[in-house]
Design goal:
- By secondary structure, this protein is α/β, with parallel strands linked by helices.
- It is built from 17 helices and 16 strands.
- It has helices at residues 13-17, 33-47, 67-76, 104-112, 130-139, 159-166, 187-199, 201-208, 223-229, 232-236, 281-295, 310-321, 353-356, 360-381, 400-407, 425-430, 437-444, and strands spanning 22-26, 51-56, 83-85, 90-92, 98-103, 119-122, 146-151, 172-176, 244-249, 258-264, 267-274, 298-302, 327-330, 392-393, 412-414, 420-422.
- A hairpin with a 5-residue loop joins β4 and β5 (98-103).
- α4 (104-112) runs parallel beside α5 (130-139), α7 packs across α8 (201-208) and α15 crosses α17.
- Mean pLDDT is 89; it is low at 1-5 and 453-464.
Length: 464
């Protein structure tokens, strides 16, 4: 595999050509890691017959893999006529090289049976688990086979950081690369990066210099808790339980997107995201209503801004389809539910909801966080909780990597009275973090609710 290749990032030439069992490429955003890996893989495929397993933690659709990156690099090098590209495979016509695409979470047992793999490329490897590595490492048995492990560092406690960076194994070449070694960046992106440096040095170091955080104690929901909840029903042998709810985060103006989460009992079974502007609210509401009809679910929707009009659309759709789908408004800035009750009913010294939470959004996120923490304790420590105090996420859901990121990113904050609240979208934007649409829809689908009287049409249009 030690051959010259088309010019990609000159800074990485020695990284790709140094003999190694494990190639670990890590660093901040805009550093060309994935683009370079795709380019070098394409080059190798044109020179010799290789079998490349392209893996990532969660991949329920081909669009979630590196398939698109490979296609772009093939076109960039003017090699399209040399490859046969189908909807789910890429093969070189002359050498017979092929690229296979798998999600580790769903297909780890299937991957064990694969033969003749030359390269296992693990993209976005920050979510790789120790158990998965123990299966993957002996799976690549072919002489000269390699692992390509690419990731943006998250936490020093993550397995991939501890295994390959803090305690680097033999026959491993690792390379830390950042945006300042990427010769292909536009001035526009460079200006964005410098603006981040000026705004927040700590976030700049994490996002663009690839420096892992020491811990995640500042966030509302810890990443390890969310990871433990993936397939928690299966791990703990629990039924999902009764009740079906759809959380609907309505897109604001600009590039924001709509998102929905379907909860079946305690388990999130469906995650969707799509574009749809203000003028397409009716179409988006129809999409959500269709999911609710199919699942016989109640709708919980964001009623701030554009979403304020969603309720009337749901009412019209109920009339059109002769259904009585319940729909409930969620206003993040509303006051808390049961403000006089204590946050821990078992502890008479704990503060009341009204004294502890700044608003309904904070109360909702903290209640969901408690269920995630309980689930982590149940899965990892064998502790027992009532089923309704746990939470599970189906591994068959789309966008799982992003959902994990979004749920475990917002930090706790405080208002002027010292009550806790959740980091706002505006403050997330200052950290160069996009609106957490998936997480918002997820939390809405698990929000507490005030009881409201039914209307004459059988629908509920109240506050939580």
């Amino acid at each position: 595999m030690q051959a010259n290749r088309p010019t990609l990032n000159p800074a990485l030439q020695s990284f790709w050509l140094t003999p190694a069992r494990n190639r670990v490429l890590y660093g901040g955003r805009s550093s060309s890691k994935s683009w370079d890996a795709a380019g070098f893989a394409v080059f190798l495929a044109t020179k010799c017959k290789i079998r490349v397993l392209c893996a990532r933690q969660f991949q329920n659709k081909i669009a979630e893999s590196v398939y698109t990156l490979l296609k772009i690099q093939i076109d960039r090098f003017g090699l399209r006529d040399q490859f046969t590209i189908t909807d789910n495979s890429i093969r070189h016509n002359r050498t017979g090289s092929e690229f296979l695409f798998y999600g580790l979470w769903r297909h780890i047992d299937e991957i064990k049976s694969l033969e003749g793999i030359d390269i296992c490329w693990i993209e976005e490897a920050h979510n790789l688990t120790e158990e998965q590595w123990e299966i993957l490492e002996p799976t690549l048995r072919k002489e000269g086979s390699q692992f390509w492990i690419l990731f943006n560092p998250r936490l020093v406690t993550d397995f991939v950081w501890r295994r390959f960076i803090a305690n680097t194994p033999p026959r491993t070449v690792k390379r830390h690369i950042n945006f300042n070694e990427n010769p292909f960046l536009s001035q526009t992106i460079l200006d964005v990066i410098e603006a981040k440096r000026a705004e927040d040095e700590e976030d700049f170091a994490h996002i663009y210099l690839g420096q892992p955080r020491e811990d995640d104690d500042a966030v509302v929901i810890k990443r390890s808790w969310v990871m433990a909840a993936i397939n928690a029903c299966g791990k703990l042998g629990l039924s999902k339980g009764p009740g079906r709810r759809v959380g609907f985060d309505v897109a604001d103006s600009g590039d924001d997107k709509n998102a929905l989460t379907l909860m079946e009992g305690i388990e999130a079974s469906r995650i969707e995201e799509w574009k749809g502007g203000e003028d397409e609210l009716l179409k988006s509401a129809g999409r959500v209503h269709a999911v609710a009809r199919e699942a016989r679910a109640v709708i919980d929707y964001d009623s701030i801004g554009v979403g304020a009009f969603a309720g009337s659309h749901f009412q019209a759709l109920n009339g059109q389809f002769k259904t009585t789908i319940e729909y409930h408004r969620f206003n993040a800035s509303d006051g808390v539910i049961s403000p006089g009750e204590r946050i821990d009913p078992q502890d008479k010294g704990s503060p009341t909801n009204g004294d502890y939470y700044a608003n309904l959004k904070a109360q909702t996120w903290w209640l969901v966080a408690k269920r995630f923490r309980n689930t982590f304790n149940a899965v990892t420590k064998g502790m027992s909780y009532p089923v309704e105090d746990l939470i599970s996420i189906s591994p068959d859901c789309d966008h799982l990597d992003r959902l994990i990121d979004e749920l475990s990113t917002p930090r706790r904050d405080f208002d002027n009275a010292g009550r806790v609240k959740v980091e706002s979208k505006k403050d997330l934007g200052k950290r160069d973090i996009a609106s957490p649409n998936l997480a918002d829809s997820f939390v809405m689908a698990n929000a507490p609710r005030r009881k409201q009287p039914k209307t004459s049409t059988g629908t509920i249009k109240g506050f939580y």
